[in-house]
Amino acid sequence: QSVFSHIVRAPEDPILGVTVAYNKDTSPVKLNLGVGAYRTEEGKPLVLNVVRQAEQLLVNDRSRIKEYLPITGLADFNKLSAKLILGADSPAIQENRVTTVQCLSGTGSLRVGGEFLAQHYHQRTIYIPQPTWGNHTKIFALAGLSVKSYRYYDPATRGLHFQGLLEDLGSAPSGAIVLLHACAHNPTGVDPTKDQWEQIRRLMRSKGLLPFFDSAYQGFASGSLDTDAQSVRMFVADGGEVLVAQSYAKNMGLYGERVGALSIVCRNADVTSRVESQLKLVIRPMYSNPPIHGASIVATILKDRNLYHEWTLELKAMADRIIRMRQQLFDALRAKGTPGDWSHIIKQIGMFTFTGLNKEQVAFMTKEYHIYMTSDGRISMAGLSSRTVPHLTDAIHAAVT
Ligand code: PMP
C-alpha cells in the first residue's frame, strides 16, 4: 500500500493538455493550434538565426565559465532588458529608479513579482482581465494574493469591453494591483487603443491602483519593439510605480531556455535599492539563482548592434507571417461564404485569434477534422500556414453550418 494511494489524478493543463491530445492523434492531417509557439510556413519550430550566431559566439569564448550567477541574474542582461521595455532613453533608468532581476521566463517573473507584492505591498488584491491567460489566476493565488477580475472582452462585439473595464477598475479598492497585458492580449487578441490606454492610466493613477504589466509578446504583435512597449512606457512616463514581467520565449524564440525579467520602477533610487534587496530574499529560497545560458544569448544579441538589427528583422518576419495568416484565413472564410462576420480575425492582434467558436464547435473540429485548440475557441495563428488554411476553413465552415 503506497503512502500516496489516496492521491487522485489531476486534470491535464488546459493549454499544454491540447498538445498531449494532439500527440496521440495519428491522423496525417492533424493540426495543433493550441499552444502558442511559432511555426514556419513548413510547420516547423524556428530557431532564430541571431540565436544560432549568439550561441556560436558563446561556445567559442573560452573565457566563459559555468559558475553561479548572482541571485538577481546576469547584470548585462538585466540592464539591457530594462532598456528594451522602457526605452533606451528612459529617464527612470537614468535616475536609477528601476530594479531588474532575471527570472524564469514570463511565468517566473510574474511569480516573483506576485510573491514580492504579497509580502511587502499593503493591498493584496490583484485584478486580472476577464478572460486572461489561464495561468495568471494560479500564479497570483499561489503567491498569496487575492485574485479578482475586471471586465475586458465583450463577446457581442468581439472587442474591448471598455465601459466595463473602466467601471470595474473604478470600483476597485484604492491601491489594488491591476494585471495588464502590455500588448497582444492573450487569449482575445484585443488591445486598448492608445487613447483608451491613456484613460486607463489616468483612472488607475487617480485611484492609486498599481500596474503590473505582463509583456510576453514585445515585437511579436505589431512587428515593432517600440510600438508594442507603448502601453508600459505611458505608465512609466508619469513617474509612478510600475511592475513589468518580460518574456523572451516568443520574441527570441527562446521558449525552453526560460529567460525573462521582472522590473520594478519606483519613485526614487533609494526605495529602488531597498526593493531589490527584498527581491533577492524572495528568489533565494525559491531557486537560488537563475540559469546562465538563455540570458547570455539575449545579452549577446541585445548588446551587439548588428545582431540586434538582425533580430528586429527576424522578429518582424515572424509578426508579418502571423498577420498574413490572419488575412488568408479571413479571405478563405469569405470566399467560402461561411456565415458570420469574421472581421475580428484581421482586427485582433498577436499570436492568437479568439474565434468565437464555442466548446461544442471546438470539440466537433477536433473530432471530425483533427484540429486541436483550447476549448474557449482560441487558435494560435503562429501554428497556421498557407498549406493548412484550407483545412481549417473547411472545419470552421462545417462547425458553424
Ligand atoms: N503571459 C502571457 C500572457 C503568455 O501568453 C505567456 C505564454 N503563453 C506567458 C505570460 C509566459 O510564458 P513563458 O513563461 O513561457 O515566458
Terminal Cα span: 53 Å
Shape summary: globular
Which H/E pattern describes the elements?
Answer: HEHHHEHEHEEEHEHEHHEEHHHHEHEEH
Low-pLDDT residue intervals, each spanning 5 or more residues: none
- Helix-strand makeup class: alpha/beta
Give the helix level as a range of percent.
40-55%
The average pLDDT value, as a whole number, equals 96
Strand order in the sheet with the most strands: 2-10-9-8-7-3-4
Strand content: 5-15%
Task: Give a short account of the largest sheet.
Answer: 7 strands, mixed
| Number of helices, counting only DSSP H or I runs of 4 residues or more | 16
Q: What compounds sit in this structure?
A: 4'-deoxy-4'-aminopyridoxal-5'-phosphate
What is Rg?
21 Å
Tell me how many strands there are: 13
Keywords: Aminotransferase, Pyridoxal phosphate, Transferase
InterPro entries: Aminotransferase_I/II_large, Asp_trans, Catalase, NHTrfase_class1_PyrdxlP-BS, PyrdxlP-dep_Trfase, PyrdxlP-dep_Trfase_major, PyrdxlP-dep_Trfase_small
Catalytic activity: L-aspartate + 2-oxoglutarate = oxaloacetate + L-glutamate
Organism: Solanum pennellii
